[in-house]
Task: inverse folding
């Protein structure tokens, strides 16, 4: 069961993920290169025609991660810390843009802002994938666990191949296309999980009070039996 606040956070998380993704895709659509070339982060450089919109989109995605963590706090406590931290790093990625071309080591010379932006982005996505894996393993709700398992099974191999591509190949069509493909199931998991949380039975304040009272009554009976 979920509380009303958790359901509200889940709903906003799902909406934020959709809106943020739409903003990023729209911002990338005006870059001089084809949409499937270049890093996604290039939409946020100062020379991009819609860098402000791109940053707002990334910020919305970061907020959706944090809000999903809030929604999952009572069901899967470990995920709360991971997703909120992922949201913070996502906010850093939005605030600190890379230089044109987003050069990354080991094949290109990088500036400190390039490293900060790339590092924050990697940590944010990595924590989101890790949170997905935790939900897949220990979620108390079977529907959330099953959904996370499917998304994690798709996301993990894509993420591993992407890391290999960044380190072994560098900038190119392979890494740019794979980067976009790998992020799709992550965003989809946020949206689907938010929707599923909204559909779970709501736990009202009266239910919580009654559960607490029943628990206290049970402890009182046990204490009297032990004393007797």
Result:
């Amino acid at each position: 069961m979920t509380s009303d606040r958790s359901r509200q956070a889940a709903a906003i998380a799902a909406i934020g993920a959709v809106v943020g993704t739409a903003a990023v895709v729209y911002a990338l659509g005006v870059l001089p290169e084809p949409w499937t070339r270049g890093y996604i982060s290039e939409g946020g450089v100062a020379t991009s025609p819609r860098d402000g919109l791109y940053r707002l989109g990334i910020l919305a995605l970061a907020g959706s991660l944090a809000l999903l963590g809030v929604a999952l706090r009572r069901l899967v406590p470990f995920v709360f810390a991971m997703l909120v931290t992922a949201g913070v790093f996502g906010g850093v990625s939005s605030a600190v843009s890379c230089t044109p071309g987003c050069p990354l080591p080991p094949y290109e010379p990088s500036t400190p802002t390039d490293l900060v932006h790339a590092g924050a982005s990697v940590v944010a996505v990595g924590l989101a994938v890790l949170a997905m894996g935790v939900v897949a393993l220990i979620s108390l709700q079977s529907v959330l666990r099953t959904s996370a398992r499917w998304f994690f099974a798709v996301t993990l191999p894509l993420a591993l191949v992407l890391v290999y591509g960044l380190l072994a190949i560098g900038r190119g069509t392979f890494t740019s296309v794979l980067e976009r493909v790998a992020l799709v199931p992550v965003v989809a998991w946020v949206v689907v999980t938010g929707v599923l949380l909204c559909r779970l039975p709501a736990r009202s304040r009266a239910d919580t009070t009654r559960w607490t009272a029943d628990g206290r009554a049970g402890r009182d009976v046990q204490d009297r039996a032990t004393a007797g």
